[in-house]
Task: structure prediction
Amino acid sequence: MVAAVALAGLTGCATPVAGTPTPGPTSSVAVAKPEVVRWMDNFCGVAQYMIASGGVQFDPNEHADPAALRKSLSDSLGRVIDVLDVVLHDLDELTPAPTPAADTAVEVINEPLTRARDKFVSAKSSVDAAPEMTTDVFAAVIQDMTEAVTVMNEAVEKIDVVSLPDEYKDAAGQAENCG
Result:
């Protein structure tokens, strides 16, 4: 008899009701720790700064005067070096990260960018030390610049390979500079 009453009570719960169902939770996005969001915001800020700064834009045909060509090239290289100095400084400021895995990401990017900066410094030194822009000097400068760009591309490729923990990926959605 008790079983029959319980069964009858349960079937009463199964009767259809009018109306539309209320949706449940639509998102399972976790709220990241503030220090991780801050770290990702700074990390993305470094990337945005690099993109906004552009690269070496130099047209050797723009200057007929060899002295003007030399100065223009030196100035362009100096700007790139200044940008890389800021980027490397800002990357250093990201360590120690809230977790060691993020430190690894910074190290993987920092190393090729440092090598690229060194190549740009070498190119600028060659330009600044040369009494005139001979074919040999120009060839050496172009070689250093080519190697620097190749190494910078290596840094970009490494960024694509490096995987940050899920907490950092979640934080990227909450970080202003990552949007």
About this structure: Residues 30-178 form one domain. The chain has a mean pLDDT of 80. Helices lie at 2-13, 34-53, 66-93, 100-129, 135-161, 166-172. The CA atoms of residues 7 and 143 lie 85 Å apart.
